[in-house]
Structures are given as C-alpha cells and as structure tokens.
Design brief:
This protein has 441 residues and is α/β, with parallel strands linked by helices. The protein starts with a helix and ends with a strand. A hairpin with a 6-residue loop joins strand 2 (202-205) and strand 3. Strands 5, 6, 7, 8, 9, 10, 11 and 12 form an 8-stranded mixed β-sheet that branches. Strands 2-3-1-4 form a 4-stranded antiparallel β-sheet, covered by helices on one side. The longest helix has 19 residues, at 349-367. The chain has helices spanning 4-18, 22-33, 39-50, 52-60, 72-87, 93-107, 112-125, 138-146, 150-159, 162-172, 189-198, 224-227, 236-245, 262-270, 284-296, 341-344, 349-367, 387-396, 407-410, 424-427; strands spanning 178-182, 202-205, 212-216, 231-233, 252-255, 276-281, 302-306, 320-326, 368-378, 400-402, 420-422, 432-439. It has 4 domains: 4-128, NusB-like (N-utilizing Substance Protein B Homolog, Chain A, Orthogonal Bundle), CATH 1.10.940; 138-172, no CATH class; 178-233, Alpha-Beta Plaits (2-Layer Sandwich); 236-439, Vaccinia Virus protein VP39 (Rossmann fold, 3-Layer(aba) Sandwich), CATH 3.40.50.150. It has 20 helices and 12 strands. The chain is globular.
Length: 441
C-alpha cells in the first residue's frame, strides 16, 4: 500500500517525465491503491503543478548548486514538502518535514539530510524571502507568482490588459466545480437532482444550459446513475458547442473529432435518438469507449468510425445537415483542469495547431450540405487558433457566413461578437471558443 505522499510523488514524476495528464493518473492511482479516495493526493498533485515555478524559485534560494543538479525525485519531494509548508495550513510543519525526509529515504537515502536542511532553512528564513517587483518586470512577476511560462503571459498581455491577464492567471489556478449533463432521454433536472440529493450530493443548476447541473460530493462517476447513463461529467462550455450546432431529430450529423464522445452523445440525446450521427476519431480505443458510453445512454444512431479528420473523404461531400469540428488545440482554456499544460505547451505549437485546425475546418466545410450548419470549436483562448482560423476560412469560403447562436439558448450569455469566447475568469467555465456558420443555399 502506498502512502498518499508517495502516490503523489509517483504521479508528479510521471506527469513531468512522460508528459502524462494529471487528472487521468490521479483517477488511476486512486482506484488502484484506494488512497483516501484521492483527496489529499489530488490536493498535492494539483497544488505542486499549479505552483511549480513559484516553488522552484523558493527552492533555488536554498540550493546554491542549482536545481538542475538535483535528482528528479529529490527536487519533486522538495516541491511537495514546501507546498505543504507554504499553502496547506492544515498540515503541521513538523509533519511536512518529517514525511518529506522519510519519503527521500525511500528514493535517495543519501539526500535525506539535504532535504531536511532545505526545508528547515526555509522555515527559519521565510519572512525574509524577496520576490521580483511587479513594477520592474510584470511578466517575471506574474510568472513566479502564478507559475506560468513567461511566453504565455507575454502572449496574453498583447491582447488583454494587466488586470484581465492577472484574473485569467488566477482563474487557471483555481479548482473548478464539477458539472454534469443530464440525459433528457432518461430523466429531467428535478428528478435527477432529487435522486442525487438523496445520495448526499449538493446540486445546483448550471449557469447557461438547462441540461447542466453543478454537483459536489464523492464518487460522482463511481455511481449507478452514472453507469446507467443518467448523466455524464461535462463542462458547460462543451455543452454549449453542441447547443450552438442545434442538432434536431432526423438530422444527419458528422462529428469529425469525436472521442471520447461527450459532445456526440449529447447531440444524440438532443436528436431524441432519431436520425444519423457519424462520429470519427483517430484513436481506436477512444472509438470503443464512445460505443460503450452511447449504449449506456440509450443512443443507437451513432456510427463510430476510425478516420483522420485531416484526410478528406469524398464519399461524405455535401452529405450532412450538421457538422461539428471540435478540433485539437493547445488547451490553454482548460489549464484549471490540466495544469501541466502551463509547462508542456510551447509557443511554436500554436502555429502548428492553427495549421491543423484550418485543414480540418476546410474539410468540414465540404461535408456540409447547402443550408446546413457548421460549428467550429476549441478549448483554447488563443486568437491564433480561433478568430484567425475563422477569418481565413471565411475569406476563402464565401459560401459560408457566421450566424449568432439562438438567443433562447444563450440568452444569459452576453455576446459582443458573432462568435462565443468563454473565459474561466469571466464565465467560470473552461476557456472555450464556438463559432456557428451557415452554408448558403
């Protein structure tokens, strides 16, 4: 049996060395080792990742040889220990130090004294630590305080003012509420809220969509109602992309980048399981997962297919009433769920993503029949991946025009542009871009 701190250490090392996603690893370790239902492990993992640059700055003040010379296990243990000392008021200082020393003995016994010395030096000197001044270098100040790579801050400061950028950084470090989407084929908001409330969950309505419920409690996915397809965990921003597409019973719909299938299944529910949905993705295991989820939700109109969205399929040209292009992106809008994106993502990748996105969107446009609807969406807040891609597509495809989503569905959302750009610091959703287009008759 692994201790919580040992599990957190192994997750963090795998995130850093293998570029794995923290949320998936936490679920894996929690199920495998039954570690306190993952609560403390989750706190440590997310806390260390969200504050990595800040923690490394503090550690560097007490390690004269530099961090690059430290073993990866030792550096990570110092991050875990200092995170507890600095941010977790419920953990006694002696426990944070002692547990860190014991953990070091398991991985690098000769460094146990070193870890003890660094942490105790911090405790003696913490009131005298000096950080960069905002007035001298706002990018470095934000980078260290909120632990973001400088290039991200620089990019956002080109578009937004300092106050908005800071609010965006803060929002990215907050733990989001969990939102679920009810399956209207099996239940409604009142009935599902009642069932979940009787199980001890706290439930409140979503902010923008009637199918959304905000839920608080344990074992949200380890639950019979979830297994039976009464609901699915999904952020409202993702729901809104499907609502903008407005699939109707009897429609023929194409989802180009479908897996793991949340949007596809929601579309099937809105279509009352009548019509046809072709759902494509490049990952075979995700296609299988989509089939399993669709079955539990009572959706039988989905045809899950293995296909690369970058490869045009002439057989589908002009075939669909509705096409969803929820394209691969940098993920800068979901940092609050996957904080490792702050360090794994590189600036030059934004252009690579934009090129891929445009190629997929161009293919998607050719699959829409005249009078049909195309929705382009991403989980990022980068104009290069959003507005610039749309403008290029419209310039080269005069037979498409942007249309605002139905006011009835999005009445509570203040829209100043024809497309939707959601921000975590404004809308308390994931950062998400949604553009609805009509193919002219």
């Amino acid at each position: 049996m692994k201790s919580d701190r040992q599990a957190a250490l192994e997750i963090l090392l795998e995130v850093e060395e293998k570029k794995a996603y923290s949320n998936l690893l936490i679920n894996k370790y929690s199920r495998k080792y039954k570690i306190n239902e993952g609560a403390f492990v989750r706190e440590i993992v997310y806390g260390v990742i969200e504050n990595k640059i800040f923690l490394d700055y503090v550690i560097s003040l007490f390690v004269t040889a530099g961090l690059k010379k430290l073993k990866s296990e030792v550096l990570m243990i110092l991050r875990i220990g200092l995170y507890q000392l600095i941010f977790l008021t419920g953990v006694p200082s002696y426990a944070a130090v002692n547990e860190s020393v014991q953990l070091t003995r398991k991985y690098s016994k000769r460094h146990a004294g070193f870890v003890n010395a660094v942490m105790r030096n911090y405790m003696r000197s913490k009131d005298n630590i000096h950080f960069p001044e905002r007035e001298e270098d706002v990018i470095r100040f934000f980078s260290i305080k909120y632990s973001y790579e400088p290039w991200m801050i620089e990019e956002w400061l080109k578009v937004y003012n300092e106050d908005f950028t800071e609010a965006l950084l803060i929002a990215g470090n907050k733990t989001p509420e969990v939102t679920i989407r009810l399956n209207a084929l099996k239940t409604d908001a009142d009935a599902l809220s009642g069932l979940l409330s009787r199980q001890g969950f706290d439930i409140k309505p979503g902010k923008f969509t009637k199918e959304a419920l905000i839920i608080k409690g344990k074992n949200i996915i380890d639950n019979a109602l979830f297994e039976q397809g009464f609901y699915q965990v999904q952020d409202e921003s993702s729901m809104m992309a499907v609502k903008a597409l407005d699939p109707k019973p009897g429609d023929h719909m194409l989802d180009l980048c479908a897996a793991p299938g949340g949007k596809t299944i929601f579309a099937g529910e809105l279509m009352a399981d009548k019509g046809r949905i072709i759902a494509r993705d490049v990952h075979a295991h995700k296609i299988r997962l989509l089939d399993t989820r669709a079955e539990s939700h009572g959706i039988h109109i989905i045809e899950a297919q293995l296909h690369d969205a970058l490869v045009f399929d002439i057989n589908l040209k002009d075939k669909f009433h509705k096409v969803l292009a929820d394209v691969p992106c940098s993920g800068l809008g979901v940092i609050r769920r996957r904080p490792e994106i702050k360090y794994n993502r590189k600036k030059e990748e934004l252009k690579d993503f934009a090129d891929i996105q445009y190629r997929i969107l161009r293919n998607a446009g050719d699959y829409v029949r005249k009078g049909g609807t195309l929705v382009y969406s991403t989980c990022t807040i980068s104009d290069r991946e959003n507005v610039e891609v749309i403008k290029k597509f419209l310039k080269e495809n005069a037979n498409f025009k942007v249309i605002k989503p139905d006011k009835e569905e999005f009445g509570r959302l203040e829209m100043k542009d024809d497309w939707i750009q959601l921000f975590p610091n404004i809308h308390d959703t994931d950062g998400f871009f949604i553009c609805k287009m009509l193919k002219k008759e």
